[in-house]
Amino acid sequence: MTDQTSMDLSTKYRSGANGTTEGRSSTVSTDDELLDIGDGRMEALGNWADLEEMEPKYSSSSNLMDTLEDLPSGIGQYEDFHTIDWLRDIARDRMRHRHITKKRQEGCWEKVLSAHDAWSGWVCVLLVGVAAGLCAGIIDIGATWMSDLKEGICKEAFWLNKEQCCWSANDTTYDDEGCSQWNTWSEILGAQTGKKAAAGGYIVKYLLYVLWAVVFAMLASMFVHSFAPYACGSGIPEIKTILSGFIIRGYLGKWTLLTKSVGMMLAVSAGLSLGKEGPFVHVAACCGNIFSYLFPKYGSNEAKKREILSAAAAAGVSVAFGAPIGGVLFSLEEVSYYFPLKTLWRSFFCALAAAFVLRSINPFGNDHLVMFYVEYNEPWYLQELIPFIFLGALGGLYGSFFNKMNIAWCRYRKNSKLGQYPIVEVLGVTLVTAILSYPNKYTRMNTSELIRQLFSRCGAEDKTMLCDYNRNSTSLSSYTSSTVAGDEVYTALWMLFLGLLFKGLITIFTFGIKVPSGLFIPSMAVGAIVGRIVGIGMEQLVVRNHDNPFFQNMCQSKQFCTITPGLYAMVGAAAALGGVTRMTVSLVVIMFELTGGLQYIVPLMLAVMTSKWVGDALGKDGIYDAHIALNGYPYLDSKKEFTHTTIAADVMRPRRNDPPLCVITQDSMTVEEVEAIFRDTSHNGFPVVLSSESQYLVGFVLRRDLMLAIANARKNQEGVVSNSIVYFSSQVPNNPNDPAPLKLRKILDMAPITITDQTPMETVVEMFRKLGLRQTLVTHNGRLLGIITKKDVLRHVAQLGNQDPESILFN
Amino acid sequence: MTDQTSMDLSTKYRSGANGTTEGRSSTVSTDDELLDIGDGRMEALGNWADLEEMEPKYSSSSNLMDTLEDLPSGIGQYEDFHTIDWLRDIARDRMRHRHITKKRQEGCWEKVLSAHDAWSGWVCVLLVGVAAGLCAGIIDIGATWMSDLKEGICKEAFWLNKEQCCWSANDTTYDDEGCSQWNTWSEILGAQTGKKAAAGGYIVKYLLYVLWAVVFAMLASMFVHSFAPYACGSGIPEIKTILSGFIIRGYLGKWTLLTKSVGMMLAVSAGLSLGKEGPFVHVAACCGNIFSYLFPKYGSNEAKKREILSAAAAAGVSVAFGAPIGGVLFSLEEVSYYFPLKTLWRSFFCALAAAFVLRSINPFGNDHLVMFYVEYNEPWYLQELIPFIFLGALGGLYGSFFNKMNIAWCRYRKNSKLGQYPIVEVLGVTLVTAILSYPNKYTRMNTSELIRQLFSRCGAEDKTMLCDYNRNSTSLSSYTSSTVAGDEVYTALWMLFLGLLFKGLITIFTFGIKVPSGLFIPSMAVGAIVGRIVGIGMEQLVVRNHDNPFFQNMCQSKQFCTITPGLYAMVGAAAALGGVTRMTVSLVVIMFELTGGLQYIVPLMLAVMTSKWVGDALGKDGIYDAHIALNGYPYLDSKKEFTHTTIAADVMRPRRNDPPLCVITQDSMTVEEVEAIFRDTSHNGFPVVLSSESQYLVGFVLRRDLMLAIANARKNQEGVVSNSIVYFSSQVPNNPNDPAPLKLRKILDMAPITITDQTPMETVVEMFRKLGLRQTLVTHNGRLLGIITKKDVLRHVAQLGNQDPESILFN
Q1: Phi, psi angles (nearest 5°) of residue B680
Q2: What residues does the CBS domain cover (chains A, B) (predicted)?
């Protein structure tokens, strides 16, 4: 049997695409009484959670069905874990649009409906943007509060976080000592005074820190495990796959949204080495999916829905970094597949709305959307490009090291017993993280806060260790210039170095555990530490050699050199993130929006480009593409060029020695014969030919449509029996002796995309990518020879990349 | 005869695509002795100017030809005014790439060549960026100097402009009076003292201003007329057409570059209501084209060359507005057609390099790339969204009014005698502009300078009329807040209003005259004037009603309200420009890069969106698309959705009553018969079929390739005579009695893109757009029925849009 558009694979997929969670579901099932059905749980859960929201509403889209000539309902929908047919979906939408435009003349109400339809895209992205902004605000506030909960609690109002608590008490400083309202756990447990007591207090704080971390992490992983297994990880690889035209029901449902939001707060608060910026994209995409069901135009058309999802992804990054333009470019560069100009505009609008809402919520109290917003004014010098390029190369090195290690560890997890104990793994990682990170103040603090400190200039009011410079004058201007560093700076450097080792390693084991986890923030932290270290080194080098002609233009006088170590930290962060994700333009724009200074684009761009080039030289894939490959998602990467010389005849099914292609003739098969084909094969669709001898192609019919039509006719149409002949032709002979014929021309796609057997595969791949095909028929001199499905193409690409084609698609 | 891929159209095109200049060439030929060949001049000029640079270098691309199986040279090139075949060009490039990769193993030199090939894209865009930055710097400096020349000259160093002149003399103010080195013409001509003399001096200045303007304008139009007729206009419509896959030889050649650069300086200096920002895109694209010939990978492959051109367009906007990100988005949103991610990265790199070079040149001496860079810090209030939306609506109204009027005037010019006197028209417009603009100081000044003044806040040091506020205190902080306006502000408002009327009207007649002219700056000036007027109105309204609860949050006290009229000017400028060009995201980003303040994105976005919606409601096309339609360029707009229900059978040639399609059989036609087809038809290509009875499609052969191959065989191949049979099949019978067969399978495209006759035209249009097809063959049940070329599609789109299909393509 040929493997043409095979349908039985859907069950394989069902367990396959859930690869990241499959190991667990069979073992840790006792703590979950909601749905205890063993291996099949995931699907059941998916179906259950999304019955209302994921199944398209036939009733509300009944006017669509009118235009589709009263076909039985359900035609034009997709099964779970199937590939969508973009051309067909977009054609369906145009048909719907024409129907509405035609009806507009009929009356006032139809005019209103038509206007509603025209505006619904904008309204939908506005709603999605507002929702994404709200979600981000709530998550930011919740995560801050819970993070502070690890250290203490506000005496009079437990719902306030540390900063708000101190603020409400009108204290001037936010240190543990200076804030009277804020009680650390050791204070509450009564261990305050005396030197010995202080040591005891430290131990109490330490233990409670670890305890809270473990509790938070356990809650997060249990939530994820019980309510929405899809909520783990960053979600970006899956969203890329979905946007490329794949159906994963429930991945963007409301339970996933809720679980991911709560799980993210808990996981961040647990002090794990992960960020909430990547998952924001998933959360925003969930909002996009949910709101698209308010508008049948988008909810019941998978291709159109992806326009909303692209915009939602932009909104996700917009709220994650306060960078609406960067978000749009991220969606364009990294996530989206089909990105028409209209989507560009709507993405921008959506990203803007989200940023506006988040700014109104103002979760960090600094009038900016992120904790680590900075503003530099100092110039940079041409000589500094050398360390910037060096940072870029380091970022590329780290990126490919991290990707290789992380993928190796994830593969080990999948193939070993470890994968069967996800909650235990989460607890283990949390325990190690909490125990090792508490003693070092730079790893103990919130990672966003660490990045903020590393990015910031040392202003007049800064008393942190990193800003302990030996300043001779106290004038304001001297604070912005570089001088000889004090001892505390060197202490801080050592602590940062230790923190770097710790963060660099623990992130490898953290990204991939079964809690919501992003790696923007940990990668940036690693890069920022390296950058700050290099920056301070450069600064001291210049300050000590300010007479050297090479450095002369950087120093006005002996005391006044303008080097900003914070800028190095930012460049380092961009380079590390670039090395891990291989983003370029969008990353630079995000960084640019974080600083608001156009002048740093050149350093950032150089570092990010170097990082990408170095990274690409050591390993082609970014972390998201690597995870897509690891999990075997059917993703046809539009970035990679297909450079082989194979032709369509090499790829099509049936192969040379296979049985011939399973086809339906246009006017000679009975209902019974067609039903026999359904039983014998599992193909998703069948070519219709003139006659089985000539094999000249007439059209293509989908299995799902054909089954529905036959079932419908058997039930409702008089005279249709097993002996009735199925006609796809326009002329149907009218013989009263024969059983009533079954006319199915209207479900026949008479314009299937065809190619010749000599077509180079690069053209075929291009057509699959750009037209969003699901399959194409292969002909030679007009005769049907075979079929190529998207999965055949993916298998072929994998094979040419020296990978096992089956492992690529179904692990 | 069917009109399939018709070639005879090229001559029609030749005069047609030059629509903007054709009227002139037959009449004003006396002042041009270089090339006086009447109507055919343009082609001659184009060919002459570009013989060396535009004709691909066959010699340097000989290694490419090796991989193409030693085909005769010239195969794979295009005629002038023809459409390119993207799929084929990209396939050719991959073949070349594979060839180089294969050769890499052979030795060190091949490794170097391979590395050079891999990097050549980056090197090329770097060179293009640097060149674009240099050109922009030179043009900026030259235009400033020449503009000042209209008023006076530097006494001791004539090559300095006014600002540099005063600077060199260490004068503190740049006014006419305060600068000792700068001599106005009236001073030089000796009319200084006394009241009467002052009046005389004014008249002298006025006359000399007009005189200089006329001289500059005449020089500009004569340069354009004599050296490069393609240098007139903004060039963006033509670049859009070229990027969509059309060949206009000489449009991006070095003569065009030189003429456009010089002509731009002259035209701007003449004080005409035009800008140099649009033409910067053309200049950058010329650089892109010229440098692409250094790299055969790009120079000899039209599809690949367009990647460089897209990047160059981004660089053009980058230097025009100092907005690299905006430039990339402009290229993506407005100009480019085929924009893969790799091009995104390279465009960004190119735009950055250009901006970096221009900043190093620092033409305006303000460390920014544009004259009107501003920095705001004041917040905006929610109530202000009402005037912002109002400004957006005004911008949309103005935009569609301007577009309609301008197109009507251009159409009148084409169809009347006016078009035959282009230089006279330029002189007339210049005379009117100079006479009317001198008395009003806001229209007399450089338009960029006007925009700068309108955008700027009134700082403490500002003594301009627009900043004459009644301030009670002299503290610094009071200067940034709004108070009651003084009398001079009202005078300024009246002058601005008159200037608005003048600029709004004269621009309609200016855009389209035969000098290099952009309309970014004039549109922005119109919008900025309206914005500033509305802004001052709003400011005074709030100041006078600061107790009104609606305005209360905008004023801290009676004297301190924070309204920035400059922000209104900026919003107005964005709205007007948006109304004219219908740009959205890129425009907002450009404005955002001009201000460097993320916080103004919401007002800008709202205004630009309103402007686009209002504009679209009144007329669909932006000015560039309107000019494309006016000139009949074969541009298949990818922004407009095709919403009709026609199918391929309605569009294909031959039509129902036409003679059958002209085909070649694969193994039964003689050389003579094929040559007869060449004589009788003008098609660009011929389908090859199994036999003329069955009409089953085998492949497609290009006329050019077939002619070259036959001519080549007749010359070099023994035994090939008129009776030889042309074989496209793989089996060639070996009969010694027959004349030697001519085997041409290797020039046969055995994978032509085919569709069925039932394919909806929306799918066909989609395929043409996304795959960059030149033609597609139409089949029914495997039999060849007809052909659809890109021009057929364009004609069909025009027809459905109720336009005369022939007028669209060939006027």
Answers
A1: -80, -25
A2: 652-718, 748-806
Residue A528 covered by a domain: yes
The domain that contains B398 carries what CATH number? Answer: 1.10.3080.10
Report the residue from A345, A751, A767 with minimal CB separation from B771.
Answer: A767
- B763 and A751: CB-CB below 8 Å? yes
Cβ-Cβ contacts under 8 Å, B768 against chain A:
none
Q: Which of B601, B647, B767 sits opposite A352 (nearest CB)?
A: B601
The answer to whether residues B299 and B391 belong to one domain is no
- CB within 8 Å: B585 and A638: no
For residue B593, what is the nearest residue in chain A, using CA coordinates? Answer: A598
Same domain, yes or no: A551 and A424: yes
Residue contact B754–A751, C-beta within 8 A = no
pLDDT per residue as tens digits for the range A387-446: 999 999 999 999 999 999 999 999 999 888 888 899 999 999 999 999 999 999 899 888
Helix axes A341-361, A108-149, angle to 10 degrees: 50
The pLDDT tens digits for A310-332 are: 999 999 999 998 888 889 989 98
The complex's ipTM?
0.80
Residue of B325, B328, B616 for testing the chain A interface, max A β-carbons within 10 Å: B325
Q: What is the pLDDT of residue A78?
A: 79
Query: Which among A600, A631, A662 is the end of a domain?
Result: A631
Give yes or no: residues A298 and A404 share one domain: no
Chain B residues with beta carbon closer than 8 angstroms to that of A767: 771
Map tokens 């503290």 to a residue: B475
% of chain A residues with pLDDT over 70: 83
Lowest mean pLDDT among A367-371, A517-521, B376-380, B570-574: A367-371
For residue B374, count other CB atoms closer than 10 A to its CB.
21
Which class for B87: exposed (0-12), middle (13-18), buried (19 or more C-beta within 10 A)?
buried
Contacts of A333 in chain B (CB under 8 A): 341, 344
- Sequence-distant (≥ 6) Cβ neighbours of residue B115 within 8 angstroms: none
Last residue of a domain, one of B631, B662, B679: B631
Q: What's the distance, CA B50 to chain centroid? A: 20
Same domain, B332 and B398: no
Instruction: Classify residue B75 by its DSSP letter.
Output: T
**Which residue range(s) make up the domain with A275?**
131-151+229-361
Cα A119 to the center of its chain, rounded Å: 27
Average pLDDT over residues B258-277: 91
Q: Could you give the number of structural domains in chain B? A: 3
Whether residues A277 and A414 fall in one domain: no
DSSP-based three-state secondary structure for B174: coil
Residue B65 has pLDDT above 70, yes or no: no
Q: Which residues in chain B have their CB less than 8 angstroms from residue A613's CB?
A: none
pLDDT digits (tens, 9 = 90+) for B509-567: 999 899 999 889 999 999 999 999 999 999 888 888 877 888 777 777 666 677 888 89
Does one domain contain both B413 and B295?
no
Q: Answer yes or no: do A750 and B760 touch at CB < 8 A.
A: no
Assigned domain for A212 exists: no
Q: Are residues A625 and A658 in the same domain?
A: no
Q: How far apart are CA A584 and CA B345, in angstroms?
A: 7
CB B278 within 8 A of CB B68: no
Q: Which chain A residues have a beta carbon less than 8 Å from that of B332?
A: 344
Q: Give Cβ neighbours of residue A501 (< 8 Å, ≥ 6 apart).
A: none
Q: Are residues B612 and B682 in the same domain?
A: no
Does residue B763 sit within a domain? Answer: yes
Predicted local confidence at residue A715, as pLDDT:
85
pLDDT in tens, A111-137: 888 888 888 999 999 999 999 999 999
* Residue listed under structure tokens 């283990």: A428
Contact A781 B690 (CB under 8 A): yes
Q: Which one, of B273, B264, B392, lies nearest residue B319 by Cα?
A: B264
Q: Compute the residue count for chain A.
A: 811
